[in-house]
Write a structure and sequence with these properties.
CATH superfamily of the largest domain in chain A: Response regulator
Largest sheet of chain A: 6 strands, parallel
Number of helices of chain A: 12
GO molecular function (chains A, B): DNA-binding transcription factor activity; transcription cis-regulatory region binding
Structural class of chain A: alpha/beta
Strand content of chain A: 5-15%
CATH class of the largest domain in chain A: Alpha Beta
Pfam families (chains A, B): LacI, Peripla_BP_3
Order of helices and strands of chain A: HHHHEHEHEHEEHEHEHEHEEHEE
CATH topology of the largest domain in chain A: Rossmann fold
Helix content of chain A: 40-55%
Protein name (chains A, B): Transcriptional regulator, LacI family
Strand order of the largest sheet of chain A: 2-1-3-4-5-11
Mean pLDDT of chain A: 93
Oligomer: homodimer
Radius of gyration of chain A: 26 Å
Low-confidence stretches of chain A: none
Distance between the termini of chain A: 79 Å
Domain HTH lacI-type (chains A, B): 2-56
Number of domains of chain A: 3
Keywords (chains A, B): DNA-binding, Transcription, Transcription regulation
DNA sequence: TAGTATTATGTAAGCGCTTTCATTTATAGC
DNA sequence: GCTATAAATGAAAGCGCTTACATAATACTA
């Protein structure tokens, strides 16, 4: 591989000049620039990004930590991130945290050791304090899908409360008055926020959430099926159930079918997230869209703006979810 | 950040010695090693991987090019790859090729410019010749899910023909004799191979594929629904349809329902790939499992073995698919 | 115990760039 | 035409490591 030195020789200029041409430094005359460009072409020169990084103390790499690389969610996020950085000539190093504290901390440590210029973190298990401490170190980072007051300016998240509100309001508008709720693990902020939105929507109709119609699930399919069974077993009538995510909604759908109920004829089901398979369930799941790709892209922009000084870029920190009506919700029968 | 120099000062040894303890070079006495380790600890020293790379001309990074980062397929693959490399202290740089020639070549160029030690490529649009040319350059690479004779030793792929065979044989075993086929784009090798497997299975029962019961789809949902409509319109009776992938199978399922047919009562449907949502369709899709995560892992091992000389590692190049029976296939009614 | 083979450590030359500072060359002002 | 100023280029010092090669310390042999 040709080096900058060979280019400089062939072009008959100094190293420094070649470097200037590469970095589009203004201080090069047209004539020289052309000579250099031609020499590069001729040698098939490609800069050594490692050497560039060492000399400039910038790796042009951004570390991404997500919980999983598979699954319907993170792929979308990565897509948004990668596209944005690729266009900017930066590259992305990925690591998986598997929602476990030790693995997440490990992953961050790993990315840091890779000299990333910045980090985009989607972490669940690590403590707020850990992140606050991390923020005092060198490497800047953004947090996706997490709100920490002390770090508010580096958080990009969804208005989960609004999403919860929209889901339940939709059901109310369809005439439902007895609405069951299958929540996520309530120690997770987003699970709590979604439920609060649910409560607010009910309050708008002078209703409150009934204790007997609440089930705390685990954001997985089994949580949804267990939840539906528990709800049914409670004996309290309901005409709709909102699930705090699509996995649980899918579980509820399956359980309903197995128990001989028909959705949405017997009761309606709402999901949350609009993951890819929500479209493949039967009936197709009505849900709340989580604009995860856009949020990933925005995280990338935050980095571009804060770390690489691309100041023209606008950053939006809070995203709004919106309703995706499909087939799993119907109007309530008039009682 | 502390440098190796500061460590060496604190420990009272030379640069070289510190470097040796880092690289676990044997030629260091216990006493010195401990002194150095302690100094590192004390300074919170972390080696600068960029400088290491420049000096050793090894970046410890592996470039991954996949078609998409989202979707049910590539995430699994990346999971397998990342886990393997992470454990080996290597890192992964990802880029998306979007199944377009220019973007794929671009992506490869990009990864190359990042000084990757090796590449793992899942490319569809780039020509065989391009890859053969690439193989003559410095950077080694493995090909996932692609067979090129001239590059056989760096191909890791699924036995698609076998998969196609298994799918159809299963249907035959269930008593089906009139089996329709919705293929992928026949210019793609895997689509062709799967179809050949189908033919071989039929031949085993002294049957041949009927022209009228063949439809060339596009591996997408719409291809499946259009395909089913065309098949139905042909007027030829069939009791089962095998789709060359799960997306098309899902499309067929939806179309069947919309046209008033019931699966598997009216006819059975087979998919291929076993992507995550295959479990969420109704009825749950019987399909052929594509061990994509294992294959990703194997690609990573190939790299570890070939590029980083971890010779103890075994590499398997051809993977076998296997049958996943679920609910979309039933026994054929006796005629 | 001298002489040799080993083993442990140090010295210093890069790796391929960026960037500061100094120098040369062109442009302008009078 | 000569100085003052700006623009273009060059020289060279790193960036933080690895790795020959040289040297010093220790162990082994006869």
């Amino acid at each position: 591989m040709a080096t900058i030195y060979q280019v400089s020789e062939l072009a008959g200029v100094s190293l420094a000049t070649v470097s200037r041409v590469m970095n589009n430094n203004v201080r090069v005359s047209e004539a020289t620039r052309n000579k250099v460009l031609q020499a590069m072409e001729q040698l098939g020169y490609r800069p050594n990004s490692i050497a560039q990084s060492l000399a400039s103390s910038r790796s042009n790499s951004i570390g991404i930590l997500v919980s999983e690389l598979h699954g319907p969610f993170y792929g979308e996020m990565l897509t948004g991130i990668e596209a944005e950085f690729r266009a900017a000539g930066k590259h992305v190093i990925i690591a998986a945290g598997h929602s476990e504290r030790a693995t997440e901390e490990d992953g961050i440590e790993f990315l840091l050791s890779r000299n990333c210029d910045a980090l985009i973190l989607h972490v669940e298990a690590v403590s707020d304090q850990y992140l606050i401490d991390l923020s005092k170190k060198q490497t800047p980072f953004v947090l996706l899908n997490r709100q920490i007051t002390a770090l508010a300016d580096r958080c990009i998240s969804l208005d989960n409360e609004l999403g919860g509100y929209l889901a339940t309001r939709y059901l109310l508008e369809q005439g439902h008055r007895h609405i069951a709720y299958i929540a996520g693990p309530m120690w997770k902020t987003d699970a709590r926020d979604r439920f609060h939105g649910h409560q607010r929507a009910l309050a708008g109709y002078q209703l409150t959430a009934e204790e007997a119609l609440f089930f705390e699930g685990d954001f997985r399919e089994t949580g949804g099926s267990k939840g539906l069974q528990a709800l049914l077993a409670s004996g309290r009538p309901f005409s709709a159930v909102v699930c705090a995510n699509d996995e649980m909604a899918s579980g509820a759908l399956t359980a309903a079918r197995e128990l001989g109920y028909e959705v949405p004829a017997d009761f309606s089901v709402m999901g949350f997230d609009n993951v890819n398979f929500a479209y493949y369930t039967y009936p197709k799941l009505s849900t709340i869209d989580y604009p995860v790709s856009a949020m990933g892209q925005m995280a990338a922009r935050w980095v571009l703006q804060q770390v690489y000084q691309q100041s023209s870029i606008e950053v939006q920190q809070i995203f709004d979810p919106h309703l995706i009506p499909r087939d799993s919700v119907a109007e309530a029968a008039v009682t």
